[in-house]
Specification:
By secondary structure, this protein is mainly α. Helices cover 52% and strands 7% of the residues.
Length: 96
């Protein structure tokens, strides 16, 4: 990260977060597959090439992930993923 211009503080913060023990969370069974797809989409975000701002999920990848996972993408699941994306974008784009 330092090679890409991240400050030493940002590198330390990222390293500490990455090495932290994961917290246990409970997921309702009805949300299990949506969360599973969300986690599989972690590398499928679009970013602005100039500002680095997070723009959102690559929607074409949503169908691909479902197909490769043997799942069907319902309208409800797509809406749920879009809601998760809308919640994540302000956090991802927050200025430190």
């Amino acid at each position: 990260m330092a090679a890409y211009g991240a400050s030493p503080e940002a590198v330390d913060q990222w390293t500490q977060a990455r090495n932290a023990e994961p917290e246990d969370v409970q997921i309702y069974h009805c949300n299990r597959e949506t969360l599973r797809v969300w986690l599989m989409l972690e590398t499928q975000w679009k970013r602005d090439l100039f500002s680095g701002a997070w723009l959102g999920l690559d929607y074409a990848a949503i169908d691909t992930v479902h197909r490769l996972a043997g799942l069907t993408c319902s309208q409800k699941r797509f809406a749920d993923l879009r809601e998760m994306e809308a919640t994540a974008l302000p956090i991802l784009n927050r200025k430190s």
